[in-house]
Amino acid sequence: MIRLFAFWAGTFNDHSVTEAMGRQAAVIAHEWWFFFAVCTTVFIITMLFLARALMKRRTVEDVPLATGPAVLDPRRERTLTIAVSSAMGVTVVTLFVLLFVSISTGASIRHFNSKNAVTIQVMGHQWWWHVIYQNTAASETLQTANEIHIPVGKPVVILTSSNDVIHSFWVPNITGKRDLIPGYSTALWIQADKPGRFRGQCAEFCGHQHAHMAFYIVAQEQNDFDAWERAQINPAVTPAPGSLQEKGMQKFMAGPCVMCHTIRGTDAGGAVGPDLTHVASRSTIAAGTLDFNHENLLKWVRNSQDIKPGNKMPAMQITDDDLNAIVAYLESLK
Predict the structure, then answer these.
(1) Alpha carbon distance 147, 145 (integer Å)
(2) Where is average pLDDT lowest: 71-80, 220-229, 232-241, 247-256?
(3) Lowest mean per-residue pLDDT among 27-31, 167-171, 225-229
(4) Alpha-carbon gap, residue 86 to 84, rounded angstroms
(5) Exposed site from 9, 16, 137, 186, fewest CB < 10 Å?
(6) Given a cut of 50, is residue 198 above it in pLDDT?
(7) pLDDT of residue 2
(8) String of b and e for 245-277 (b: at least 16 CB within 10 Å)?
(9) What is the residue extent of each domain of the chain?
(10) Under 8 Å between Cβ of 129 and 213
């Protein structure tokens, strides 16, 4: 509960989630504030009428005993009929206005495209995000996890899908929610108007670690984005001979890690878990569960089940020396 409140308040984000940083988020924010204003007005008016009725209520002593059939005052009856009819009319008009605004918002979000958009495929897993930057040249197609880098001011197409259960892609600062349904692929357009780091979250309950399935969108100026993309396309750096990192690489390749993870430029080609080619360039591990640092990486590699129970990574039976070597190798993958 504390973590969810902090997410809403902006503690885990560089910006408050109520601050729109993209075209879609701005349109949705305008709709939300309009709905808020209308609903607040309706609530206040209703409470005022309720207060008036309570103050004018009559006690039992004020009500005369009935000596015959009830007789209504025609003028009072007409007044009540007009009041009720007017209230119903205002209600119907208000609902249609809200419906029109909602449809207009949806149309504004959908009617957004570009011939030169960046295309990114995002696949939801229990409980992490697989991110693929498509390219016509296979050698320049790159994969990462839980961080989506995009250029500022340029339309981006997010192709969404799910590998297992229903997930929901949600970045409040950038765009609304989009469900990821197994067996179906959908697309949404996003655009960040300012550079920054914006937290996203799976917004559909997807299992035991649903609350720990976060990601970040990193909006960068075009030159910075191009530099990041070039660096990510490169294979992993080969450790220096005789170094602790080289020992860690040998232990990594000789263990079960290669069955689940890919490190381009090595023999590791697993596709079950995140691509680790440049894992040290990311700000978090375990889909936003922990900050990327030495101590957290040690804990995660030793026994990820202590941190994120139920995830697909088994506990590692490993000595301290081998653990330190593997962590040193992973920290070199920038």
Answers:
(1) 6
(2) 71-80
(3) 27-31
(4) 5
(5) 137
(6) yes
(7) 39
(8) bbbbbebbeeeebbebbbbbebebebeebbbbb
(9) 1-53+77-233, 244-331
(10) yes
Q: Is the pLDDT of residue 57 over 80?
A: no
Same fold, 1-53+77-233 and 244-331: yes
CA distances to 115, 197, 211, 254 from 201, rounded to whole Å, are 28, 13, 8, 35
Tell me the β-bridge partners of 162: 124
Out of 3.40.50.880, 3.40.720.10, 2.60.120.10, 2.60.40.420, the CATH code matching 1-53+77-233 is 2.60.40.420
Question: What are 292-301's contacts with CB under 8 Å, separation 24+?
Answer: 294/327, 294/331, 297/327, 297/330, 297/331, 298/323, 298/324, 298/327, 301/326, 301/327, 301/330
Residue position matching structure tokens 């990594």: 252
| Domain 244-331, CATH | 2.60.40.420
**pTM for the model:** 0.79
- The token pair at 295 is 């101590």
When pLDDT is cut at 50, 70 and 90, the band that residue 71 belongs to is: low
Measured CA to CA, the distance from residue 287 to residue 139 in angstroms comes to: 26
Q: Model confidence over 37-49: pLDDT tens digits?
A: 999 999 999 899 8
